[in-house]
Structures are given as C-alpha cells and as structure tokens.
Specification:
Layout: H1 2-34, H2 39-43, E1 70-78, E2 81-88, E3 93-96, E4 103-104, H3 109-119, E5 126-131, E6 147-152, E7 157-161, E8 167-171, H4 173-185, H5 198-231
Antiparallel strand pairs: 1-2, 2-3, 3-4, 5-6, 6-7, 7-8
Helix pairs in contact: 1-4, 1-5
Length: 232
Amino acid sequence: MKRTVRQALRRYHIWLGWIIGVPMLFWTLSGVVMVWKPIEEVRGTELLADPAPFELTTVPVVPRVEGRGLKSLTIEPRAAGPRWVLHFADGGSRLADPASGRLLPSYSAADAVREVMTRYTGKAKVVSATRTDPAKPPLDLRRDIAAWQVAMSDGTHFYIDAASGEIVARRTRFWRFYDWMWGLHIMDLQTREDTHNPWILGFGIATLMTTFLALILLPMTIRTRRKGKDSS
C-alpha cells in the first residue's frame, strides 16, 4: 500500500515538474536580468540633473481660472524659467506665467527638446520628438496623457507632459528590455502590470504543490532505502 502511494506521488511530482519546468526557467532567467544592473542605472537616474534653483524677483501674479476646480497650484522650475503649474480637479494640467498670470499654451516639440536638454547629462543626441496619443500611449510610458517622446541616439526615451512641461518618464534601452523581462516574470506581456492573472496564479500553485510533494517524498524515500539496507 505504501509503495503504491509513493509511486503515485512520485508520478504526480514528475508530471508537475514537467509542467512547471518552462515557467521556472523564465522566472529564473527574468529574475537574473532584473538584478543584473543597479536599478538606478536601469532607470537612467543619472541622465537628468536636478532642476536649477530659481529666484522670483517680483510678486507672482496668480492666474485666473474660471469654470474648473483647482487641485493644486505651485511654482516649479522649467527650462524657460519658473512657471505656475495648475493641476485641475478633473485631471488636466496647465502652465501659467508668474509675471503676468497668463495661461500658456501646451508644449511644442521644440519646448520638449529644450526641457530635456537643459537637464540632460549624457552624451547622446536628440533623434526625434514625437507627440504621443493619450488614447494609445507607448508601452514604455503607459500613461494616458498628451506627451512628447524625445528619443535619443543611444535608445533612451524621455517623456514630457505637453500640458505641464514635466518630464514624467525616462526610459533607457535596457529599461525596455528589463520591462519586457518583468512582463515575462509576472506572465503579462501585454500590460506588464497585472500580477494577479490566471497564468501566474496557476503556475504558482503548481510549483507549490510540486514542492510539497518533494517534501513528502523525501522522508518516504529515505525510510525505504534504510529498510533496504537493514534487510540486506
């Protein structure tokens, strides 16, 4: 009876091992890639210097906004100088001139490039500046905002919010590979954000069952071998 149970458990263990073999390989490979470089290098933290400090020489004029509720109103540094940054309750943003309170238009491609190059510390050159579609944002942005993608010759992408002028994302070439590996790790290559999908849950449970079976089989195998030696 015990031998039959042991054989059945061993059979289940082998089949589960075959099932989880490929995902285990992917989990290990993607995990190694994700720790291969320091996360600061992956994110390109050193590629942008902090904004230069600014000084207001006159009392700033508060912009007039009618018909839209304000969530926040701050003065922040931009490449062209300090700017009011208005964040509306409905989720939109806008820039305004502190000297006059006048609302400013959205960023152009030249404005976006200037915003990046004012703080850029790398050696690459600008290749292009492309407007993104809020309805279909690039996979390495994944934010439904109107933005400019400033692409560099080394493969780095900077994303600038066209409304607020904020550099909202910096994506190195390795970051995109890292992001793909992250999607492989959580088994979500489409959005790369769903860590609660059926694939990873199913394979995770199968891996857990395989481990439990191994823990059960190990003492059973040891006892069987000891009995075999004692009988000989």
